[in-house]
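Example record used in the benchmark description.
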Amino acid sequence: MKAGTHQVAVRMNDNLVKPGFNFVKEDQVTLKPGQVMVIDFNPDKGGLFFK
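Model output (structure tokens):
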């Protein structure tokens, strides 16, 4: 993504039997020039994270 403020939404389903998304993360992020954002997933700590 380019530097600036963005509304980011990530939705994930890790269950083939259950329809819909069981992990959802939505947040506004502001990136500086050259900054890197990582989307991480850890189900034991609540699911999706922006770093």
